[in-house]
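User: I'm preparing a small set of examples for a lab meeting where we compare how different chains pack in three dimensions. I only have the primary sequence for this one, and I'd like the structure in token form so I can line it up with the others. Please keep the answer compact; I'll paste it straight into my notes.
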Amino acid sequence: MTTIYEVIKKPLFTEKGMDLKERENKILIEVDAGANKHEIKKAMEEIFKIKVESIATINVRGKLKRFGKSIGRRSDRKKAIITLKKGEKLDFIEGV
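Assistant: Understood. Below is the structure token output for the 96-residue chain.
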């Protein structure tokens, strides 16, 4: 079993993620590949002191990439889209 600090890896700052945050009060983060929705919800609520309404998870396969003659592969990862309850707010970067 992992601790709550190992479940959440990092926030994802993408155009889609910023649009989701502004329009629908959703946050996009990268999580541990073995984490389930219950663990993610518990970690978010305990670490950031927010109320989570729902969570959607996405498994992203790593892309094949060429490095000169050889072919490599990027790592697989798991993303989570977290919907916050009405009135809740979470800013990873203040002042932007």
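A couple of notes for your slides: The domain at 4-84 is CATH 3.30.70.330 (Alpha-Beta Plaits). The CA atoms of residues 36 and 57 lie 8 Å apart.

User: Perfect, thanks.
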